[in-house]
Amino acid sequence: MRVVFVDRDGVINLNRKDHVKSWEEFVFLPRAVEALAQLTRHGFRTIVVTNQAVVNRGIISREKVDEINARMVAALNAAGAKVEGVFCCPHRPDEGCSCRKPRPGLLLEAARKLGVDLTRSYMVGDTLGDLAAGRLAGCRPVLVLTGRGTSQFLSGEARHRQGYMVSRDLWHAVRRILVLGGLVKPGWLEAARFRVSTPFPIAGTGVSSINTGIDALAGDPRTAG
Ligand SMILES: [Mg+2]
Ligand SMILES: [Zn+2]
């Protein structure tokens, strides 16, 4: 099956500097639920992959994180957005685990357990670490500009990297994935944006459709080319 792996904080829900510690602090981003419901309607599976170092930092318990995720999944299911699974890394960066993004462990585990065709799948996230994990797992990476996305996109590090798509938020990322998959027809404005933003395949990335942020920043001279 083909899947859209989705990061949680900053993509599905509002990123909090002090972390989401309870369901009361979990706030869905605009149109995120609708975006995931669209994926379900068009036959894409959704898997959430999230770093939660708050667990091993002792800020909240694993049970609490699992409860928040379960409530998120219940709310999404109720809105017609089916989630196949939530895969969560509880480790701190210094523990050197293989599952914390930018490592691809969570995606590979999900692929093994659920039978995911990684090369036909996408990873949508708001950090360069999400993109790296997606790429290492063999998926097509998509950066969204919600959460930490904009600052990550404008960072020096991001400028030297290519081979990922950029969308302003999860809803736009989903639209684009569906258009690329031939599942929906683009509107004229989308068609125009996608055309400018799909110039060349980038060697070695295995990604056939690339841009440099134009979906979100069309006409912005800073991102031209
Ligand atoms: Mg995030
Ligand atoms: Zn881990």
Note the main attributes of this structure.
225 residues; Rossmann fold; 9 helices; alpha/beta; disordered C terminus; six-stranded parallel beta sheet
Task: Output the CATH homologous superfamily.
Answer: HAD superfamily/HAD-like
Number of helices: 9
Low-confidence residue ranges:
198-225
Name of the top-level CATH class? Alpha Beta
Please, how many domains?
A: 1
**Strand-residue proportion:** 5-15%
Instruction: Quote the distance from N terminus to C terminus.
Output: 34 Å
Ligands, ions, cofactors:
magnesium ion, zinc ion
How many strand segments? 6
* CATH architecture identity: 3-Layer(aba) Sandwich
Structural class designation: alpha/beta
Strand arrangement in the largest pleated sheet? 3-2-1-4-5-6
Mean pLDDT: 87
3D architecture notes:
By secondary structure, this protein is α/β, with parallel strands linked by helices. The protein has a single domain (3-223), classed as Rossmann fold (3-Layer(aba) Sandwich). The chain contains nine helices and six strands; from the N terminus they run βαβαβαβαβααβααα. The chain has helices at residues 32-41, 62-78, 105-114, 128-137, 149-154, 156-159, 170-180, 188-196, 214-217; strands at residues 3-6, 45-51, 83-89, 122-125, 140-144, 165-167. Helix 1 (32-41) runs parallel beside helix 7. The structure holds magnesium ion (MG) and zinc ion. The site of magnesium ion has 8 residues, from loops.
What would you say about this model in short?
With 225 residues, this protein is of the alpha/beta class.
